[in-house]
Write a structure and sequence with these properties.
This protein has 137 residues and is of the alpha/beta class. The chain contains five helices and five strands, in the order βαβαβαβαβα. It is globular and about 35 Å long.
Length: 137
Amino acid sequence: MNVLIVEGDQFLRNYLRLQVAEAAWCDGVDVVEAATLDDALAILSAGQMDAELSDEAFPPGWGEAMNDLSRWAEGWRTLHRECKRLGIPFVLLSGDPAIVAAARSLGVAALSKPCETRAAIDRLLTLAAAHLVANAR
C-alpha cells in the first residue's frame, strides 16, 4: 500500500510518517512524502499512490511560484481534484476549523489537527486498503 503525505512543515511531515508507521495494522505501507504542491502533483502523476493525506496549505514549489500565495491556500483543492480524477482517496488534515468545515461541506474527508491526527491516519489507511482491494494490485 502506497500513501502520500503532503505537508509543508518538515517536523509535521516526519511526525505523520512516524504515526503511519506506528499504526498497528498497517504492515506493508510505503509512505511517500511531499513538501510542495508541485512535488505532490508529480508524485500523483506517477500513478502509484493508494491514498493521500494532505495539509491545507503548503508552498507550490520553488522560484516564481513561491510568490503566488493563492496557490498556497488552494493547494488542498488542487490535490483533492487530482486524487478524484485518479480515483484515489484523499484525506485533509488541517489546523484551521473553517477549512475543515468548508471541506466537509464539499464531501471531503477532513479532520482537525492536532486533536484528530490519529483519526485522520486511521481513515487514510482504511481508505487506502479499500482502494487497494478494489483495484486488486
